[in-house]
Amino acid sequence: MVKSKSPDIDVGKMYFSYADHFPGRISSMCKLSSVIKAIEEKLTKRQLTMFKKDIFGHFLECRSFSFSGVILHNLLLRQVAHEEDSREDQLWFQIGEHLIRLSIVEWCLVTGLSFGVDTNKKNDEMEQRLRNTYFGGVHRKINVKEFDAIFKELKFEEMDDMDALKIALFYFADRVLNARKNHCQINFDWLDQVDDTQYFRKRPWGLLSWEMIYESLDNVLFEKDEKFKKTRLKNPDHNIEKYNLYGFTSGVQAWIYEAIEGLPSTWVVKMKNKIPRILQWKPMASSRINFAEVYSFFNDESRLGDVLQTLEPNSKESSRNYWVSVKDYLPSIPGWVLKHQPSINVMLSAPDDYGVYTNVGNENLSTPTSLYSFYGDVSGESVQVFSEVPPGVSKFGRAYIPSYVYNSPYMIPPIRRRQNVRPLPRLQILEHAIDMSMTVKINPLRGLKDSSMFAEFDRWFTGDSRVRRRVQHPRSFFQIILGTASMGWLGDEHIHEYLRLISEKERQYPNALLQRVTHTDTFFWHTMSKSMTDVDMLLIPVNLDGEHWVLARVDFRKNKVWIYDSLITCRDDKRYRLKFKPLEVIFSRWLEYVGFYNIRPELRSADPWKVIVVRSTPQQEPGTGDCGVFVLMVTMYLMFGLGLEFNASHVEYFRKKIAVDIFNDDIVL
Questions:
Q1: Which residues form the domain of 537?
Q2: More exposed terminus of the chain, fewer Cβ within 10 Å: N or C?
Q3: Is residue 358's pLDDT more than 50?
Q4: Beta strands in 66-191 (DSSP E)
């Protein structure tokens, strides 16, 4: 099955390039925890003991197995194409630089369900006693949701214990292993078959559940990338693709936890060594996990623990029926896996961190996660609201994380880091100083006097082998800057790289600064509490709703945050206003927390912070990916005290200038 427009995806290549990755919200039809809870609540003590000793009894320990759709979605984005003759028994995914396999082997080891040849009974061989006795007869139609309600209304204490066991076994099989939408009819064949408990127990539930989850995983993202792009063109507010997963999704989660070691404890906790392996894990609440966090973790070799390509049985598992049943069906490792080069999947930048979690019911954050961790929720009653304040901010700034974690709205995918790569720049503190020997007239629009700089870049970009020079970034990096790939959306590394050049230019021409001002990287830094005390103003690249760059100018003397948004006219003022409310309270508390006012006590004020949008900000063309370009230009103009006298017609030139400046590792003023 092909998941993109091209039907000829090379073996070993991800179906979706990084540039085509998108945030998703999964609704899982599998209700493992709720089904276990219902069984424990409804069955009598004796009936529950009987269930515990039967084929699905071990799952009673999974009463707190939260669904983590964000992790599962990030896995599905990384599925790689493989040979047709191996498609029936295994799926392959790339995590960092590693390939991992999900096959019937891993499935049985994780779930404890057996494999084998299925011998399904014919309809005329099956009894329908349970249907006639408890569920209204053979002519009554019952969907999944209705059966949930019926199960909870049955009087199990008045029921024959064996009938109670049979109904509970069917309930688990149909609601967990065969999980479907609520409106689907229950599997009446299974309900009839469970009356013959010996036959029901011998069925290869590992195979039956594997077939359904395989089909669900392998088809679920088919053409979802194109659907996401088309919908987004029609509706710019569309920032997440929703879809359903069927079958035993909890088993897939448990396999991920087994295959990828070192997952953060805020995602999942390993309780103790148990078999089958699903019993070892306790997933954390999905609201603690967001798309960008998982995306960056899966791409970061320095944070990944051991990544297991396949799972192997331990000594205890080797004697279990589920392993004995599957060991003769072991799929071989395809030859292409042994020859696989991870670099085949290093592509252009990918959209990321849309500020939206991938599980139903989660809410977007309104403030930096670092600030929330200090102070918790903030009451809106204590906050003043300004009519000038702009629409829908779901994230303001960044949490305290190393900048190698690509926590951005438009991500540059991972490339193996060499030890000699230039380290990320620290926050640059710049004091106003007069040096008449280094005066400079700054005009970013006047063009380059030396056209050879443009010409050399053009030759290198088009592949001229005669251009002999070392360039730090690949051509794909510059394609995005020039707007020829990924809609021209700049990622953290583009923003970061140009801010580094601005910092170097500030040191070269310190007298060009008209005020005590500095800027941050695309992340808040641990050292900020010290460095901010030397300046009166701070410029911060920020993303709104994870899909749009803006610039925040923090004025420490006036207790104001000015927002430079190149798409103000496209935003809903009410949403914007409400989302900014908590920030006006929290920012001052954050400055207290990092010790800012201990060094600058004269700036401490009882007045609340105010967030104001600068309506005169130059505006980009709606529907373009030019926001990052505007952020860089506004930053440079403000740093050097220039009026914001440019507009959307200058974007093409600015893109070329940014590319050439980075190519030459110097900004030409």
A1: 364-412+441-664
A2: N
A3: no
A4: 90-95, 98-103
Cα-trace Rg, the chain: 29
Question: Maximum distance among all alpha carbons in the chain?
Answer: 99
Sole residue written with tokens 């994780």: 110
Helix, coil or strand: residue 185 = strand
Q: Residues near 201 by Cβ (< 8 Å), separated by ≥ 6?
A: 54, 55
d(CA 212, CA 176): 11
How many degrees, rounded to 5, is the angle at CA 151 between CA 149 and CA 155?
120
Beta bridge partners of 375: none
Is residue 194 located within the same domain as residue 319? Answer: no
Same domain for 587 and 472: yes
DSSP 381: G
Per-residue pLDDT, averaged over 490-518, amounts to 74
Report DSSP state, residue 295. H
Rounded to whole angstroms, how far apart are CA atoms 363 and 127? 48
User: Is the same domain home to 108 and 2?
Assistant: yes
**Backbone φ and ψ of 640, nearest 5°:** -105, 15
Residues 326 and 400 in one domain: no
Q: In this structure, is residue 426 part of a structural domain?
A: no
Residues 196 and 329 in one domain: no
- 354 is a domain residue: no
- At residue 390, what are phi and psi to the nearest 5 degrees? -80, 180
| 408 and 328 both lie in a single domain | no
* Paired tokens of 597: 């006012």
Q: Which two tokens stand for residue 498?
A: 């140009």
Q: How many residues are present in the chain? A: 669
With 60 as the cut, is the pLDDT of residue 644 above it?
Answer: yes
Q: Are residues 185 and 89 in the same domain?
A: no
CB 279 within 8 A of CB 65: no
Of the candidates 248, 249, 227, the one whose C-alpha atom is nearest the C-alpha of residue 238 is 227
Phi first, then psi: give them for residue 613, nearest 5 degrees.
-90, 135
Task: State both tokens at 106.
Answer: 């891993």
Supply the pTM of this predicted model: 0.56
Please give the average per-residue pLDDT across 188-215, as a whole number. 95
Distances in whole angstroms, Cα of residue 315 to Cα of each of 271, 312, 318, 389, 463: 20, 10, 5, 63, 56
- Which of 203, 229, 255 is the C-terminal boundary of a domain? 203
Q: What whole-number distance in Å separates Cα of residue 331 and Cα of residue 545?
A: 44
Q: Quick one: tokens of 628?
A: 């990052």
**268 inside domain:** yes
CA distances in angstroms from 546 to 239, 410, 489, 590, listed in the order given: 9, 8, 12, 22
485 within some domain: yes
- The confidence score (pLDDT) of residue 545 equals 66
Count of domains observed in the chain: 3
**Structure tokens, 288:** 């603690």
Q: Identify whether the C-beta of residue 105 lies closer than 8 Å to the C-beta of residue 330.
A: yes
d(CA 221, CA 228): 11
Q: Is pLDDT at 529 greater than 50 in this prediction?
A: no
Structure confidence at residue 453 as a pLDDT band (50, 70, 90): confident
